[in-house]
Design a protein that fits this description.
The chain has 29 helices and ten strands. It is α+β, with helices and mostly antiparallel strands and about 675 residues long. It folds into two domains: about 350 residues, Collagenase (Catalytic Domain); about 210 residues, Neutral endopeptidase , domain2 (Neutral endopeptidase, domain 2, Orthogonal Bundle), CATH 1.10.1380.10. A hairpin with a 7-residue loop joins β3 and β4. The chain is globular.
Length: about 675
């Protein structure tokens, strides 16, 4: 499942803190959060959010704080209550599995006593590796599913190879295995290869982290082995493709037969790998980064088996630190959260327990969540907005003066073919085969991982279910799946500040409406535009239309290249292009849908603001965010989502914004009409 989200999904899980979350005190525009001393045309983000920015503090256990995080906090508190209640559900029920998994994570005394025991069989297999055949077999045996590479925050995995199961590029009606580059523990290849003091410091701390984990494991000569593990990862990083290059879908569409691997990626025992990975019956693969896969295979051949044993053992333990004794969990926090993202304090145990339970048994917990917290009225209202936005997008397509009639017809066909799931999926996933034991936190996680892997590879060759979700309903996010031509709008995001049934329609269309439009517009961003109405990878454009579309995208990328959060680091316009196109498309489509919903009547004012002003302020409020420096630097380097303030300022490309706030030449955000980017 294609993962083009309104925000980075994994970041959402991190943006969770405790404490009460009061219901919205103001239904609509909160003037106390604004800074009206700033001209909207100079800094719209500050105008809309400056009051909040002056007083808001990032909780000690978070890397950032803002609208998404505050809503995620409320949702986490709700999930906590549901999980505690689930501990009293009938034995054997899925609800009881949720309760027992949650309770097992909270059992710190039991976790201390158990230690590494549940990993013993895997660590014993690793220790017994004596040659390339054994090595490949172990890499296959420990293979797990990786999330969608179309969200390029996941072009990195610490599995040597990533496996993703999704509709095929060339046959979107059947599930196909994709192979991805992997093998590194830092967030991106640039962390290994960039030559500056900040990255050098992170590399030194990563080596120290590996050393500490090996020491906790009782490994002999940990300093020497940690350096060898890092050196191996650096070679792998050097072989990887960059995130920007990996964004090119056409470069990613490399069909390999199983027999091709031995010839095209020599040095690795592919037969042993496929056999133990459960992929021996698969003959057709899509290899996303073929040069990287070939180079990584050659690195296997020239690297001593002893180094691979240490590498695999380290990652087997490090990947599961959250389920291990306190010393492991604390060390993991210290490096991955504190060093890489600047988080001062580890989250309370219950918060981590909620995150882990949602990740392991997502649909089981989702059923508890939507039954309690997602009323039918919210679903109906959101579905009405979806219809209005789809209709508005088709009208916009009809009025694109640069688009050929044949391309226009295909674009409208694609809109009509959208599957938009609102709130929750039509079918729930079963966890009947997942054994959950109340006093076995690590064992529960290992069994959940194995069940998830078997679930996905079991779907290979089957007919695609276009209604299948890749996000749980309790996730504060939304997602586009272009290989399914589908959008998922989870229940948890259908709450203030995104959606408030008591707020003016203009504010809701600026908030959740733009979110809906954003996800729908992803099917027409620089990646999504390459997929047809049924998810097939195809060119449905005339050359002239594609040239115009590409030029407009280049113009938007150049605009974002000019934003510099730090003197030494700018936003990457190419990396963030898909999200920025979707933001712009969502703004325009939702604005048109809101106007149509008025049926020619004037919009009521609120707090002195016109309906037009409320719409754009509602949009800017969504991007209200404060981020720690380390986390912001990491986001700019590795995340396809630009920082919130620059996403809010995308209004400078919308003609209606200029009229709404009387923005004039000479103001900092002003763009002459011919320099405003108009795509959809």
């Amino acid at each position: 499942m294609r993962f083009r989200s309104i925000i980075l999904a994994s970041a959402t899980a991190a943006l969770l803190a405790g404490g009460a979350f009061a219901a919205a005190a103001v239904h609509g525009i909160d003037t106390s959060a604004m800074d009206t001393s700033v001209k909207p045309g100079d800094d719209f983000y500050a105008y809309a959010n400056g009051g909040w920015m002056k007083t808001a503090e990032i909780p000690q256990d978070l890397s950032s704080w803002g609208s998404f995080a505050m809503l995620a906090r409320q949702t986490q508190l709700r999930n906590r209550g549901l999980m505690e209640e689930a501990g009293n559900a009938p034995e054997g029920s899925e609800a009881r599995k949720v309760g027992d998994y949650y309770a097992s994570f909270l059992d710190e005394a039991g976790i201390e006593k158990t230690g590494l025991t549940p990993l013993k069989s895997e660590l014993d297999r690793i220790a017994a590796i004596k040659d390339g055949h054994d090595l490949a077999a172990e890499i296959g045996a420990s293979q797990r599913i990786d999330v969608d590479p179309l969200n390029n925050t996941n072009f990195h995995t610490d599995h040597l190879f990533g496996i993703w199961v999704a509709p095929g590029f060339n046959d979107p009606t059947h599930y196909t295995p994709y192979m991805l580059q992997g093998g590194i523990g830092l967030p991106d290849r640039d962390y290994y290869l960039t030559d500056n003091a900040k990255m050098a410091d992170i590399r030194a701390k990563y080596i120290a982290h590996i050393t500490k984990v090996l020491t906790l494991m009782g490994t002999a000569d940990p300093v020497k082995k940690a350096q060898a593990i890092f050196d191996l990862e650096k070679k792998i990083a050097d072989a990887q493709e960059s995130r920007v290059d990996s964004e090119d879908i056409l470069k990613a569409n490399n069909a390999w037969k199983r027999a091709d691997f031995a010839a095209k990626a020599q040095g690795f025992d592919w037969n042993a790998y496929f056999d133990t990975a459960g992929l021996s019956g698969q003959d057709n693969f899509i290899v996303w980064q073929p040069a990287a896969i070939s180079s990584i295979a050659s690195i296997v051949k020239i690297t001593p088996v002893s180094v691979w044993r240490d590498y695999l053992a380290y990652h087997a333990v490090d990947d599961h630190s959250a389920f291990l004794p306190k010393a492991f969990a604390d060390e993991s926090f210290d490096f991955y959260a504190h060093t890489l993202s600047g988080v001062p304090q580890q989250a309370e145990r219950w918060k981590r327990a909620v995150n882990a339970t949602n990740a392991a048994l997502g649909d089981a917990q989702a059923q508890l969540y939507v039954k309690r917290y997602f009323p039918a009225s919210a679903k109906a209202k959101a579905e009405e907005m979806v219809k209005n936005i789809k209709d508005a997008l088709k009208v916009r397509i009809d009025h694109l003066d640069w688009m050929n009639p044949a391309t226009r017809a295909k674009a409208k066909e694609k809109v009509d073919a959208f599957y938009v799931g609102v709130g929750y999926p039509e079918h729930w996933r079963s966890y009947a085969d997942v054994k959950i034991v109340k006093d076995d936190a690590l064992g529960n996680q290992l069994r959940a991982e194995e069940a998830d892997y078997q679930y996905w590879i079991g779907r290979l060759g089957q007919t695609v279910d276009r209604g299948e979700w890749c996000m749980t309903p309790q996730t504060v996010n939304a997602v586009n799946l272009p290989l399914q031509n589908a959008v998922n709008i989870p229940a948890a995001i259908l709450q203030p500040p995104f959606f408030d049934p008591d707020a003016p329609a203009a504010v809701n269309y600026g908030g959740i409406g733009v979110t809906l439009g954003h996800e729908i517009s992803h099917s027409f961003d620089n990646q999504g535009a390459q997929f047809g109405p049924h998810g097939e990878l195809t060119n449905w454009w005339t050359k002239a239309d594609m040239d115009h579309f590409t030029a407009a995208g280049d113009q938007l990328a150049k605009q974002y290249d000019g934003y510099k959060p730090f003197p030494d680091l700018a936003v990457n316009g190419k990396l963030t292009l898909g999200e920025n196109i979707a933001d712009l498309g969502g703004l325009n489509a939702s604005h048109d849908a809101w106007l149509a919903s008025l049926h020619g009547k004037p919009a009521p004012r609120q707090a002195g603001f016109t309906g037009e002003q409320q719409f754009f302020l509602g949009y800017a409020t969504v991007w209200r965010t404060k981020t720690r420096e380390a986390a912001l630097r990491r986001q700019i380097l590795t995340n396809e989502h630009a920082p919130g303030e620059y996403r809010a300022d995308n209004v400078r490309n919308v003609d209606a914004w200029y009229k709404a706030f009387d923005v004039k030449p000479g103001e900092k955000l002003y763009l002459a009409p011919e320099n405003r980017v108009h795509i959809w």
